[in-house]
Amino acid sequence: MSAQVDASALTTATLAAAASFGQVEVNLPPGAVGDPTRLVMSTFYTPTEPAPENKVLIGRGFRLEAYRDNQPQPGFRVGETISLTVPFSLSASSQVDANTLQLHAWDGSQWSADGLTCAVDSGQNVVKCTADTPTLTQFALFADAPVAGCSRAIRRALC
Fold first, then answer.
1. Phi, psi values for residue 54, rounded to 5°
2. Which residues contact 15 (CB under 8 A, 6 or more apart)?
3. Is residue 155 within 8 Å of 148, Cβ to Cβ?
4. Model confidence over 115-154: pLDDT tens digits?
5. Which CA distances in Å does 135 have to 92, 114, 140?
6. Which one, 25, 117, 142, 155, has the greatest CB density within 10 A?
7. 3-class DSSP assignment, residue 15
């Protein structure tokens, strides 16, 4: 699934696309782009790059891209802090701890959470993040990999 929106220096832009367990939403404030720019978001099931060590992918990831005059703008950097809302679902049998959920961005050589500030809203089953002037790239929600033999309840205390 994908979404697109035309943004300019004076407009707020919102991208929303269906994901595994709800809707991924990205909000850009006025000033996020300088010149008229088409922003495109596409979701995917499997990132093109492997998960960080000791992490597991939760749900779908998504890619943000920018186009000007119908030409892709590789390495496009947004000029303002943006907000991102990413849904998740953890089954009752899952040993993944929701408190370890963190959005990561692909920086060209590795997944990184640098510049991303996130909070887990377990009641709404979403992770709400802000990204400080990010480069548009792949984003994915990861959690700490379960430790073999440890349930969520005892992992915090013993594992």
1. 65, 25
2. 3, 4, 5, 25, 26, 39, 40, 41, 64
3. no
4. 999 999 989 999 999 999 899 999 999 999 887 655 544 4
5. 35, 12, 14
6. 142
7. strand
Over residues 78-84, mean pLDDT? 96
Q: What count of other Cβ atoms lies within 10 Å of the Cβ of residue 92?
A: 5
Sign of CA dihedral 143, 148, 151, 154: negative
Q: What does the DSSP 8-state code read for residue 158?
A: H
The pair phi, psi for residue 99, each rounded to 5°, is -65, -15
- What mean pLDDT value characterizes the chain? 88
Rounded Cα–Cα distance for residues 9 and 14 (Å)? 14
Question: Identity (one letter) of the amino acid at 107?
Answer: D
H-state helical runs in the chain: 152-158
Amino acid letter for position 111 = W
